[in-house]
From TrEMBL:
Keywords: DNA damage, DNA repair. InterPro entries: Alkylbase_DNA_Glycosylase/TA, DNA_glycosylase. The keyword DNA repair applies. This is DNA-3-methyladenine glycosylase. It comes from Streptomyces catenulae. The keyword Amino-acid biosynthesis does not apply. It comes from the Bacteria.
């Protein structure tokens, strides 16, 4: 069982740095257990499981890995934990952002280097509630994934590209995934090798590569590349909630549009994703005025 440690150069928050990689409660590929983070991935060398734990005594992060992909995961451990990120490049321009930046100095932008792993759950989140998307991800991995290497049999590794492409239509329906999203995932799986090349590209080129697949637009590309590249400027556009949260946090006004959000974030050019991440960490959201959007279930149709 190979191991590795990484010592951050300054304050570090393991759980908030990697928490964005999990897809809701019960994610079969990501879990927190006794303060440790467990992550199952399909690497270019095959399935691998990573167990990560912070060591307060020396400030290090210790990792153990299992499976054919273990060496790949450990080789890229520093990048995953945010070693390539440069939080010092960020300058807060609003009082709320400054307070969040000071409070969360240990948060870095993780870089997974695995495209399909973040792309598929992002496609599942298109135009539905988070709860619906998380349920679909859980059901699909439990039924079509494989047991993750290592000592914890609860974890599952997502299917390989061929496995995604071979999921029958009724299984997508059972998971609550409509034809538009399932067709997009199948198209992506069929060109998986070309999409994985985006992990070594600059943000603009990587976005263009992903958006060449019908059904993948700027929203999905940004949500994917935030995780794959740890890109500080991969701003999510077209989101139902984000502009309203940003607008309310920075101005106190409701109903902010994407265009207005872009204007508000102009001072953070090059760091707009990091700015919105800090705004979300501040917990400042507009009070709810309407009932929560109802959760649909096409599996019952």
């Amino acid at each position: 069982m190979p191991t590795r440690t990484w010592v951050p150069p300054g304050p570090y928050d393991l759980h908030r740095t990697l928490g964005v990689l999990g897809r809701g409660p019960g994610d079969p590929a990501f879990a927190v257990r006794g303060g440790e983070i467990w992550r199952a991935s399909r690497t270019p060398q095959g399935p691998g499981t990573l167990r990560l734990a912070a060591r307060p005594a020396d400030g290090a992060v210790a990792a153990e890995a299992w499976g054919p992909g273990a060496d790949w995961l450990l080789e890229r451990l520093p990048a995953l934990l945010g070693a390539d990120d440069d939080p010092e490049a960020f300058t807060p321009r609003h009082r709320l952002v400054h307070a969040a930046h000071r409070r969360h100095r240990g948060v870095r932008l993780a870089r997974t280097g695995l495209v399909l792993e973040s792309l598929i759950p992002s496609v599942l989140e298109q135009k539905v509630t988070s709860d619906e998307a998380y349920r679909a991800w859980r059901l699909l991995l439990r039924r079509h994934g494989e047991p993750a290497p290592g000592p914890w049999d609860r974890l599952r590794v997502m299917p390989d590209p061929r496995g995604w492409a071979l999921i029958p239509s009724w299984e997508w329906h059972r998971a609550g995934v409509d034809a538009k999203r399932s067709d997009t995932i199948v198209r992506a799986a069929r060109v998986a090798r070309r999409l994985e090349e985006a992990a070594a590209m600059e943000l603009t080129d990587a976005t263009r590569r992903l958006c060449a697949v019908p059904g993948i637009g700027p929203w999905t590309a940004a949500e994917t590349l935030q995780r794959v590249l740890g890109a500080p400027d991969a701003l999510t556009l077209g989101d139902l909630h984000l502009p309203k949260i940003v607008g309310y946090a920075l101005t106190g006004r409701r109903g902010t549009t994407d265009a207005e959000m872009l204007d508000l974030l102009t001072p953070y050019a090059g760091q707009r994703h990091r700015a919105t991440r800090l705004i979300l960490l501040s917990g400042t959201v507009p009070p709810r005025r309407a009932p929560r959007f109802p959760v649909g279930d096409i599996a019952r149709l």
